[in-house]
Amino acid sequence: MKEVENDFIKFWIEDGILFSQFKKITNGNLENIKAIIDLRHEISDGKKQYWCYDFNGIKSYEKDARDYADQYGQDYLYVCAVVLNSHITKFILNTFMMLKNPVVPLKGFTKKEDAVNWLNELKRKNEQL
Q: Which domain of life is it from (predicted)?
């Protein structure tokens, strides 16, 4: 299993899915988002990934960080499943994503197992093409 990490987040690839988990409560500021994207690019090694992004651990997510992630954070991704700790946050994210129609599909979940199942389903469909 391939792993990379810094002082606040860890990435690993397991069974063809990229996972991440925050190691401590982290502010989603521009500096940290750049570090997250750089680390994800490093582990991706130029190959597209199915990412299970455990968002639990993000204390806040600043607008300039969101804008940066929108512009530079979608490289090397097929899709992204975001694990959240709130059904309300999940609903808001999924509604926003339907309206936004992002380049990389992104869907929120409250259970990691459901996120992984969705990613595996999309992975199987993509491999059949």
A: Bacteria
d(CA 81, CA 105): 8
What digits encode the pLDDT tens for the residues 26-84? 999 999 999 999 999 999 999 999 999 999 999 999 999 999 998 999 999 999 999 99
What's the CATH superfamily of 2-128? Answer: STAS domain (3.30.750.24)
Domain positions in the chain are: 2-128
Exposure string (b/e) for 23-33, b if CB count within 10 Å is 16 or more?
eeebebbbebb
Contact between residue 28 and residue 100 where contact means Cβ atoms under 8 Å apart: no
d(CA 120, CA 17): 8
